[in-house]
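Second attempt. The first submission of GNAT family N-acetyltransferase had a stray character pasted in from the spreadsheet, which I only caught after the job came back as garbage. Lesson logged: always re-copy from the clean sequence file. Corrected sequence (187 aa) follows.
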Amino acid sequence: MQYTIRPAKKEDYDVVPELMLQAMEDIVFSFIQSEDIEEAINFLTILFRKTDNLYSYENTFVAVDHEDNVVGSITGYNGDDFEKLREPVLSLMKEQYNNNLIPETETEGNEFYLDTVAVSPIVQGKGVGSQLLQFAIEHGKTQGFNQVGLIVDLENPSAMKLYTRLGFKQGKAIDFVGGEYYHMYIN
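This time the job returned cleanly.
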């Protein structure tokens, strides 16, 4: 089945933050200093519905089925804007959770950076993730980027295998919020 990919709408907040949580669960728990799933979804929902931040609907595309049900999402942005887009996230962490953590930088810039990629469990294994990634790669190229990058958890070999199959190359290892990741990229 082929899915339609469209820009996310603010109204997609009822589904997309749950997908984002699936993609970054441990990281969000570090941000809110709790493993409360509802609070993590609340945190991501606040950010998704606002503009000009890492997790905004403005930076997200969704895969929808023939009934316009969201079944996957991918969030990406200009890596050169990372610091500016991260500021509202850090502010919310500090204001709402009294968390002064400043996570390591995920991108060195000069790339279209893919922050989260997630697929609903009901359609996993049906090509939605590949379709979202191929869309994002093409989108990055049409926006004038020479490189599309992301980080992948070293403990997620299936994701690494998917990215490699799509042409991503393994870059350097990085530490991020207590985990070990590889930066992967495609030119």
